Each structure stands twice: as structure tokens, then as C-alpha cells.
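Why do we care about 3D structure at all? Because function follows from shape, and shape follows, mostly, from sequence. That is the central idea of this module. The next example makes it concrete: a single protein chain, its amino acid sequence, and then its structure expressed as C-alpha cells.
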Amino acid sequence: MRAAGAYIGALRSALWLRLQAWPADGGFAAFAGLRLLIAALLVLEVPRLESHDRFYFHHGGDQDYYFEYALVLLRGSYARMFSVNLGQPAMLAAFSWLLHGLVFEDVLTIAVLVNGFLLAGLSVILVGRLALEITGDRLAATVAAAVWAGMPWLLWLAFGLHPNAVQLRMPYVPGAAWLHTIADGPALFFSLLGMYYCARVLRQPRIALAVLAGIAFGVSFLFRFQFVMLLPLALLVLFISRHWLAGFATAASAALAYVPQVAYNRLASMQAGMPGVIPWLPGYVYFGLIDPVSAQVYWLNPKLNIFIDMFKGAGLLVGVGVLLAGVLLAVLAAASVRALGGSRALLLLGAVPGCIGITLFTAIYRENVFRFTLPALPIFSVLAGWVISVLWKRYSAGPQTV
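And the structure:
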């Protein structure tokens, strides 16, 4: 038995040394290839999902609304105000112009290829690099890239434990794979890119990196304004690290990247005879200062605030669960600050609610927790990679990470 244990330990050491000798981006690229394979198999109905027809994956008709916006942009008119931002419609408009498409089905294939293959594949490399930048741990980054690459299949397996597995798998598995032709995938990709450049600024305080971070955040807001919580998080991280100039450069470049939305909103509101609206907010956000989900963000309204409403009639079991979750979060926060430093720990832990967005503070989040938690899955992957690496180093007799 002792000889067998020694042999297994030696084999594990050899595998780990071999992994360290392989360039990090090579490993991330391999997992990106796995993600592309998973996406291709999902298109080919492996595993099979309900309401799926080749490149079409069910999503309640939102894609048609995006395409209506795309046709308005394609005509160069500002005849309508929309309840979504112009990022995804602009992309669909470009595809429509390129393919001379007049209906959504004409651009469906290329939209799925861009969202679910190109951006999703690159996102695996990006998650690996972000994990490496935040943790400085090769094993954590490798696990993060692997978990994010396999997330669609992991969700498919996890939903198998639920009695309504078929209904849950139908929208959320392709949603995690970014195979829907909606704004979630591109918005999250550019948000991750902004966090990556922000993390690099902590190591290399260069203004160019800060500007790239700001542009990435601004572009992500053009797709989904709800991710705006990530910008103040990034600014806080930079400011507490005393990178003042980089913080101001990030904020300014994010604002400049958002100018196209401001311009469209202003032109559309004036044409609609509503010049008094707030032009820097998207679509149905016009009539409130911080109202990106249709007048639902009000802390003092117990009917709309999830944190007030969720405890109404809560029993002892819910209270114990919340208490345990709070203790776990406190332990995780203390461990991450000690291991990573305050700035990187804040960026890592704060990105989870940041990726969920402002919807976290609304009743709409409670109504569809799965849907609005999906954007946080890449950061959960980074957290999982870091926790696994910490446990490996603490309890394994194998070689230590560097």
C-alpha cells in the first residue's frame, strides 16, 4: 500500500510539473477548444434540449425585439425608444447589412456563431487570465478555465437533480453557453475584459491599461446597462490601491464609450416629443435616476425590495441558512484578503454581485434567480479555482503551486 501511495504521489508530481512546463495560454486555449466542442454538440442536440431547432434555442421572443431595434438602426432612423441598449441590436444590424437579411432567421446562424462560439471561446481564455492575474496561482487559473469551459454540461448535470430538469435545462444550459442571440454573452465578455485590465493595473499601473478597462466596461454597458455596478467596483479597487489617475482614466473612457447610447436616446426622445427624459440611461430607464429595471429599484418599498420581501414570514430554517451563508462569506472574505490582498480580494468577491447587476436589488431577481445569476458563473469559476488550489496546497502531499 505504501509503495502504491508513493507511486501515485510521484505520478501526480510528474503530471503537475508537466502542466507547469506548458504555457498557461496553451492550457486556456485547450479548454476554449472544449467549450467550442460543447457548443457544437449542443447545436447538434447532444444532449437534447426542448424547444431547440439547430441554431435556434428558446428564449421567450427577446431576440425578435432585439432585431426590431436592429432594423431601426439599419434604416438610420430614431423612430422608437427601446427597453434594451443598442449593443446587441447594432451587432444584429451589422449582420443584417452584411447578409442582406430582412428577418431574424437570416442572421440567426452568424449571431449564434459570434456569441456562442467566438466570444464564448475567447471568454474561457479570458477567465483563465483573469484568475491568474487576481490570484497569481497557475492551478487556480487552470481550474477556473476548465470549470467555465464545461459550465453548460455541468449545469445540465446539476439540473438533473431537480424534478423540473427538462424545463430548467431548456433555457439555462444554452444561456450559460451564450448560444442565445441576446446581449448577455457580449455584455459579460466585455465586463470580464474590463475586470482583467483593472487587475493588470494593480500589477502594472499604466494609464493605457486603465483606458482599455474603461472602454471595455463602457462597451459592456452598451449591451446591458445592468452591469454598471462593476464600474464603481473597479474604481473603488483602483482608488484604495492609490491608483488615482488610473481610476479617473477608467471612468472617463467608460463614459466616452457609452456616448453612442446617450446620442441615440437623446435623438429618439426628441423625435418622440419627450425631450425631458434622462438621456444617459437606456430605454425604459428614462424616468428614474437609478431605474434600469422598469421602476423596481427602490430600497424603501417593501413590495419591490427583495431583501425586505424575502424575510416576510421566513421561518427558522431560512434564518439559519442566511446565518450560515453570512459566516461562510465572512470566512471566505477574510481568507481572500489574507491570501490575495485587499484590492484583489475586493475585485474577486465584489464581481459576483457586480455581474448579477442591479437586478440583484429588485423583485425581478427573486422571480427568476437562475436567469439573473448566470452572468456571475465565470466569477464563480474563478472562486472555485482559487478555493480548490488553496485546499490542494493545504492538504495535498503533492507539489505546491507557484
